Amino acid sequence: MAFRELESKPCIAEELNETSVEIPKCAIAFGAVAPPQGDIVDLQVHLGCTKEVSSFEVLLQNWGKKYSPGGATPILVGVDGHIDIGRGVFVPQLITCRVESVKCESTPTENYIRVSGRCWGEKLFRRTVTKTYENKKGEEIIKDLLDYYVGLSHVRYFDGTGVELVEDTDTTFTKLAYENTPVWDIIKYVAESSDLAGVIGYDFRVAFDGKFEFFAKNSKASEVSISEKIEASEYRKDIHRIRNKITSQGANEKQYPSDANDDGLTETTTDWTGSDPVILSSTHVIEDGQKKYTDSYSISNDAYGTVLERWLHRTFSAIKMRGPDGYKQVVFWHHWTGTQDALASAKVRLYSGASYFETDILPLVSSKGAWVKVTLQTQTPDWTVNGTPNWDAIDAIRFIIAYPAIGIAYIRIDHLRFCDCRYSAVAENEGSQTAYGLRELVEVDEELYSDNECLLRAEALLAYLEDPAEYLTARSTVIDYGSTPIWQADKIHVTLPNENVDADFRIESVEYHVDAKTQTLEVTLELGKVPPMLADYLYALCSKTDHLSRYKVARLI
User: Are residues 52 and 27 in contact, defined by beta-carbon separation less than 8 angstroms?
Assistant: First the structure.
C-alpha cells in the first residue's frame, strides 16, 4: 500500500519525536510467564470489531531455550494473558488474549519464539446453537448467548457498581430459529439488523479487559486527538459499493385480491360477463381446510335454454404472472351441474388483450355437482397460445365448460385469486446512474409484507448505497494516547488539508506495532465513513411487532 508522506510538516513530527513522545513501553503476560521488555523484538496488537476479533503476534528473544517446551519458563498454547503498550508512565492494557500458536525459530547464532493468538473473542467461535428465540429484544438474545454459550462477561464494575455493556436496542425479533449455528454468526446478524432511534446497525467488540461490549454504531467517540500527528495517509473514495437501482422483494405471500375471505373477485358481479346473465349464487364454499370463510356468494351463470357451452369471464387491471414478482398460481373453486352427467371439456383462459393462454382442466373438475379446488401453475408448459399474449400483462380470465350434447348447464366460481408472488418495489437514482453507470442490487427480505414496505426498504437502501464511500488509512509514530488508547469501533475526527478532509470517521480497526530495534510505536488506523442506514420501514410503518420477524434457520455444512 502506498502512503502519502506529510512532507509539509516534517518539523512537527521530528519535534514530537524528540520532545513530546517517549519511547514505547510494554508489559506482557502469558499465563504465569511475563517476558521482560528486553526480550521483545517485535510486537503487534490488532484490535478489530464486528467483522473480526482482535489478535496479536509477538517475537521474543529465546536465549537458553527458556520459553521453549521444557524450558525454564515455557510459553504454552492455550493459556490466557494480556498485553499492555504505552509511553512514559502510562502503559494501558490493550488486549486480554489467549495463546493459540507458539513457533520456535532458530539459526546457528539466533534463537527466537513467535507467539500469536486472539483476544477472548475467540470464544465466540467455539459453540454452536440450536435454539428458537421468539419475541425477544436484540439485547436479550445477545445476553443469552454470552451467558449460556460463550461465557464472556458483559458487566464492568466501577467502585462496586456494575455497568451493563450490552446496550438496549429498539428491535424486537418475532422469531429467530437456529440449528447448529455458530454463536458468532448469530451475534453478527443481530448486530447488523438491530436499530436505535431510527438507525440500523450495532457494533460489538471484546474490550481490553475481556468484557463484551455491544452498542449502536458511531455512538462512542475516541478521547484521543490525532490532529497534526498523522505521518502517512491514504485517502480514497470508491464506487465499488454503489448501487443505484434497488429491487426489494418481500415475503412470497402476496395475492390478488388480498382480502381475508379470498373473495374480492367473486362476491360481486362487477366486471363479470358470461354466455348468460351473471348472478350471485348462495351455493358457495364456506371452508378451505382449517380456514373458514364468512362470505355469502359465488359467481354463477343464470342458465337459459339448452346449449353445448357455457362460460364466465372476469376482467381486471393488468397483472404480471411470471417471475419472482409475478403471480405464478391461479387458485379457484369450481362447480358445475346441469342435465348432462359428464363434460366434453373444461378450460381456463388467461387473456392479454384479445390474445390468450389456454389450459385444459377437465381431469380436475370431472365430478358433477361438487366443489373442486383448482390450482394452476403459470410456469408450466401446459398452456397453449392464441395470438400474442404477454405473461407480464394478464388482464382477464375466462372459465369455459362444454357438454357432449345440448343441455342446460350451470357453472359456478368461488374464491378466485392469484398468488405465489413476492411483494416488491424498485427505487432508483438516475443522477447516480448517469455519473457511475447502472449498478443494480436485488434484495429478498422475508419480513416485508407489503409493496409499500418493499418500497420503503428499497428507498432506504438506495439512500445508503447511491453515493461513494470514503476510506482512510492513517499511520503515525508520534501519537501519545496516555492512559486512553484508541479503540476499535469508536469514531475519531480526522483533518487532512490537502485532501479537503475534515470529518468524523469510524475506526474499523487499529493496530499497535512496537519495533524494538527502532524503539518506535507505530499506530495504524483503518477508518471508514458511510451514510447511516436508516431504519426505513421499521419506523415508517411502526412494524415493531408482527412484521419485524427475522425468520432464519441456519445449518453448518
Answer: no
Torsional sign, CA 551, 260, 357, 426: negative
269, 345 contact by CB (below 8 A): no
Say what the pLDDT of residue 293 is. Answer: 93
**Residue 147 corresponds to which amino acid?**
D
Q: What is the domain range of residue 65?
A: 4-122+469-529
- The CA–CA distances, whole Å, from 14 to 18, 49, 116, 189, 497 equal 6, 33, 33, 46, 20
The span from the CA of 421 to the CA of 251, in Å, is: 8
| 546 in a structural domain | no
Cα 442 to its chain centre, rounded Å, is 13
Give the H or E element holding residue 402: strand 394-407
Instruction: Assess whether 269 and 410 both reside in one domain.
Output: yes
Cα separations in angstroms, 227 against 13, 80, 98, 474: 12, 36, 34, 12
Both 345 and 405 in one domain: the answer is yes
User: Which among 358, 388, 421 is the end of a domain?
Assistant: 421
Residues 457 and 453: their CA atoms lie apart, in Å, by 6
Looking at residue 198, its pLDDT comes to: 78
> Rounded to the nearest 5 degrees, what angle is found at the Cα of 319, between the Cα atoms of 317 and 325?
150
Looking at the fold, whether 395 and 457 belong to one and the same domain comes out as no
CATH of residue 37: 2.30.300.10
CA 156 from centroid of its chain's CA atoms = 30
**Among 421, 450, 483, where does a domain finish?**
421
pLDDT at 26 over 70: yes
- 20: Cβ–Cβ under 8 A, 6 or more apart, which residues? 478, 480
Tens digits of per-residue pLDDT, 192-231? 888 888 788 899 999 999 999 999 999 999 999 998 999 9
Query: Do 187 and 117 fall within a single domain?
Result: no
In a domain, 507, yes or no: yes
Confirm whether 411 is domain-assigned.
Answer: yes
C-beta atoms surrounding 236 within 10 Å = 11
SS3 percent helix, strand, coil of the chain, rounded to 5, is: 15, 45, 40
Q: Is residue 516 part of a domain?
A: yes
Hey, what's the cell of 234? Answer: 491514504
Task: Name the pTM for this structure.
Answer: 0.71
Q: Between 546 and 329, name the one with better pLDDT.
A: 329
**Residues 455 and 499 placed together within one structural domain of the fold:** no
Let me know whether 172 and 185 are in one domain: yes
Q: The domain that contains 288 carries what CATH number?
A: 2.60.120.430
Judgement on whether residues 377 and 316 belong to the same structural domain of the protein: yes
What is the rounded end-to-end Cα distance, in angstroms, of the chain?
36
Q: Does residue 380 share a domain with residue 306?
A: yes
- How many domains is the chain partitioned into structurally? 4
Looking at the chain, the whole-number percentage of residues with pLDDT higher than 90 is 74
What does the pLDDT read at residue 123?
A: 97
**Three-state secondary structure along 176-230?**
EEEEEEEHHHHHHHHHHHCEECCEECEEEEECCCCCEEEEECCCCECCCCCCCCC
DSSP element (H, E) containing 376: strand 372-377
Nearest to residue 523, comparing CAs of 10, 21, 8?
Answer: 21
